[in-house]
Amino acid sequence: MSIVYYQGERIHFRPIEPNDEPKLRQWINDPRIWSTLSHRPPTNVCREREWIDNLGKDDKHYNFGIVVSEDDRLIGSCGLHLGKPHARRAGFGIMIGDVDAQNQGYGSEAVQLAVRFGFEEINLNRIELSVLGGNDRAMRCYEKAGFVREGCRRQQTYRHGKFIDVYVYGILRDEWEVAQRDRAQLEPASC
User: Fold this and answer.
1) Of 15, 43, 50, 111, which is most buried with the most CB atoms under 10 A?
2) Residues 18, 52: contact at Cβ < 8 Å?
């Protein structure tokens, strides 16, 4: 059984470990995965091990393995990346690399869990992300978690033989807190 660092309903976050390297490298080199992410060059064993070895060496990056709790299966990774401490802001990224685990709500739960962690555990005020145009599934996932589309960087990146837009999303702590209160009011009281 793996370490449970932060618990959700069906998933949990745990540290990324050296023995995760083959799986992470396989995912990041899969065109079905990297085509929806920010530019990533091909990644070999040395490069992926170096990335894993550098995790946890500073307190600005919170990187997690996303694990299905029921069967202790690693299905992806996500991270909050802090900027200047006084800004209380972080960038967010996620990858559900196990294609069999996609479209099952795990990504949505992981986004919501990371947002909760960011606001409740590291006292952020803002979490932001970018998503490539055409990645409608990711946009729906982020909007479901409360992210607001704040802008469009027109033709910012080049993918699949054409320039595409990149959309900027953000969620503020007070927006998230209001949504949490509203959700709590809708839930039936337990006896």
Assistant:
1) 111
2) yes
Tokens 């793996």 -> residue: 2
d(CA 128, CA 89): 8
Q: What is the CATH number of the domain that holds 67?
A: 3.40.630.30
Domain of residue 63 covers 6-185
pLDDT reported for residue 1: 57
pLDDT in tens, 169-189: 999 999 999 988 888 887 766
CB 142 within 8 A of CB 169: yes
**Which of these, 63, 74, 25, lies nearest to 46 by C-alpha position?**
25
| Domains in the chain, number | 1
Residues in the chain: 191
pTM over 0.70: yes
